Each structure stands twice: as structure tokens, then as C-alpha cells.
Amino acid sequence: MEFVKEFATFLHQKGIIKFGDFTLASGKKSSYYVDLRLVPSYPQEFRKMVKYLENEIAQNIGLDKFDSIVSVPTGGLVIASALAIETVKPLIYVRSKPKDYGTSKSVEGKIHDGMQVVMIDDVATTGGSVVNAIKSLKEVNISVKDAYVIVNRMEGADEALNELDVKMHSILNILQITEALHEQNLVDDEILEKVKNQIAK
């Protein structure tokens, strides 16, 4: 768990996670905001994160148990690309909507019937974008059993993926991050309570 504490501290120090009052893309109010798109700007930490993710996948499911890595633009795709290079695995990605020119397909990359893939994303809130991607993959007979995210906001993604028979794994969740920061007196009791209340909703 040393990585979790270190990574949480890094996220806080660099302002990648901010506490306050925010409105998310979905229109929901949040007591914090996490923007993992900033992580690749810090190559040492970015590489550590990708290596940690690689080890988790290797231990949990085995790198030989799936054909390709899949992601959704844009946040998750940067992480998935780095992971594909480290693991020497093919990479495919799912557009949020099919392109309206050329071949107009929603799944990009080399695919074949019955292939097994592992889904990668940066942050999971309700799981909406990943759920849509999984449905697009199933339409072309691609099987997803596991999805990995860096940060789980714990607001319904696990359950949403579970309904599609996909197991969600996260490197860390918002409660672990906030508690690690609280232990180091980097955030106060009030912030910790706000985050706990938001999860409870």
C-alpha cells in the first residue's frame, strides 16, 4: 500500500486532486475534482503508475489471458497506450460515437470475433462511458471481463459494470486517497466527512 500513499500525496501536491466545490461534466456537484490528464506531465510518476497497473493486471488475471488492451478517449487512452507499450500488447479503442466519415466504425484497431480484452480508463464515477464502450465491444463480439481504472470515485461504477458481468478493479479509490491525505494532515476532518457523505449518496 506504500504506492497508494505516495501516489495520493503526489496527486495532492501537484493539484491533480483538488478539494472544494465543483460541478462535474455530468452536471453533478462534487466536493473534489480529480484530473488525471495531468499525470503524464510528470513522467517519473506516470511510469510508476503504469508499472503498478501492469503488475496488478499480471497478478490478478495474467498478461497471457487476454488478446488486447482497450480504452476510451481521451483520459484512459493515454494510460492504455503506455500500458500497451510496457506489456507489448495490441491496443484498440472505442469512440464515444462512431465517426461520421470513412468507415464510420466505433471500435478502432485490429479486432476479430471472440477476442478477449481488458478495459482501461482513468477515473470511474458512475461508469457511464465504460458501460457504453463495453456495449459497443459486445456488438462486435469482443469479450470484456475486467476493467481497470486508476481512481474509483465510488459513485456506482462497480455496480453498473457488475450488471454487464464485468469486474471493476481500481488502483485506488477516493476514500483511500482522502484518508491517506488526512493521516498526513494534508486535508482536515471536514473534507474527509464531505467525501464520505458524497460516497454515501
Automatic annotation (TrEMBL):
Its EC number is 2.4.2.10. Its cofactor is Mg(2+). It comes from the Archaea. Pfam families: Pribosyltran (PF00156). InterPro entries: OPRT (IPR023031), Or_phspho_trans_dom (IPR004467), PRTase-like (IPR029057), PRTase_dom (IPR000836). Pathway: Pyrimidine metabolism; UMP biosynthesis via de novo pathway; UMP from orotate: step 1/2. 5-phospho-alpha-D-ribose 1-diphosphate binds at R95, K99, D121, D122, V123, A124, T125, T126, G127, G128, S129. Residues 56-160 form the Phosphoribosyltransferase domain. CDD domains: PRTases_typeI. Keywords: Glycosyltransferase, Magnesium, Pyrimidine biosynthesis, Transferase. Orotate binds at T125, R153. It catalyses: orotidine 5'-phosphate + diphosphate = orotate + 5-phospho-alpha-D-ribose 1-diphosphate. GO terms for molecular function: magnesium ion binding; orotate phosphoribosyltransferase activity. One of its GO terms (biological process) is pyrimidine nucleobase biosynthetic process. SUPFAM superfamilies: PRTase-like (SSF53271). HAMAP family: PyrE. Catalyzes the transfer of a ribosyl phosphate group from 5-phosphoribose 1-diphosphate to orotate, leading to the formation of orotidine monophosphate (OMP). Homodimer. Belongs to the purine/pyrimidine phosphoribosyltransferase family. PyrE subfamily. This is Orotate phosphoribosyltransferase. It comes from Nitrosopumilus maritimus (strain SCM1). The lineage of its organism: Archaea, Nitrososphaerota, Nitrososphaeria, Nitrosopumilales, Nitrosopumilaceae.
